[in-house]
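Supplementary Methods. Inverse-folding protocol.

Structures were first reduced to a discrete structure-token string of length 246. This string, shown here, constituted the complete conditioning input.
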């Protein structure tokens, strides 16, 4: 009898001392101190989610803030977390995703964390003397403060994620001269012999980037999202302008 396949677990706790954790928890603290003082004393855990895939409409979950239940806080006791923020690992670690987008997602999820207030307007306290928390709902489907701080709405990032997922799923052959023409069209002239020397994965990465970059506003700087190997080629053969042509 064939051995039954083990159940996949989509969650991975991000430890504060791990390579990813050092940077992410530093961002978390910075954002809490700068914009979320009301939950500064709350205990947050960060975790990867590896199982989110686009739904039938192409929407992809990028992050989620979850409040620990009373039972979870009781079982975990002193080590309990008040909130766990799940992050889409595949999207987060994609080379074409910018730190600005990553911080906006984390900041957005922190906006969901709030202190529960009692009838007197003060923080509600449970019988163990702990502050109680709640999940704040969206303000007009989005927290306007995120758009103010990052210049984009979370749905803009979700639209980018949808386009990225579609581009990643395209496994057609990436030709040399065709890719050169596509790069040239967005103001990134890369010599043909350089493209020939790229691996198939590097050509595909460049093609994915071109497809996404075409959707950016005119004048967007190439350097903001360009893959490293393409940027290196451009430094060796500088374009006339460092932004997408109008």
């Amino acid at each position: 009898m064939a051995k039954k396949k083990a159940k996949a677990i989509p969650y991975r706790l991000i430890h504060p001392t791990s390579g990813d954790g050092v940077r992410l928890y530093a961002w978390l603290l910075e954002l809490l101190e700068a914009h979320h003082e009301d939950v500064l004393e709350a205990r947050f855990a960060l975790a990867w989610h590896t199982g989110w895939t686009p739904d039938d409409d192409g929407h992809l979950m990028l992050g989620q803030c979850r409040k620990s239940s009373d039972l979870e806080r009781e079982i975990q006791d002193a080590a309990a977390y008040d909130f766990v923020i799940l992050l889409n690992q595949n999207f987060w670690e994609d080379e074409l995703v910018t730190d600005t987008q990553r911080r906006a997602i984390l900041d957005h999820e922190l906006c969901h964390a709030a202190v529960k207030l009692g009838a007197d307007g003060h923080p509600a306290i449970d019988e163990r003397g702990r502050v109680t928390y709640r999940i704040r709902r969206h303000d007009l489907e989005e927290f306007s403060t995120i758009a103010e701080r990052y210049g984009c709405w979370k749905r803009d990032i979700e639209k980018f994620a949808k386009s990225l997922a579609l581009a990643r799923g395209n496994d057609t052959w990436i030709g040399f001269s065709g890719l050169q023409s596509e790069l040239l069209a967005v103001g990134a002239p890369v010599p043909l012999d350089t493209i020939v020397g790229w691996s198939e994965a590097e050509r595909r990465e460049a093609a994915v980037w071109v497809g996404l970059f075409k959707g950016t506003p005119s004048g967007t700087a190439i350097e903001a999202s360009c893959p490293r190997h393409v940027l290196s080629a451009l430094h060796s053969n500088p374009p006339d302008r460092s932004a997408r042509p109008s």
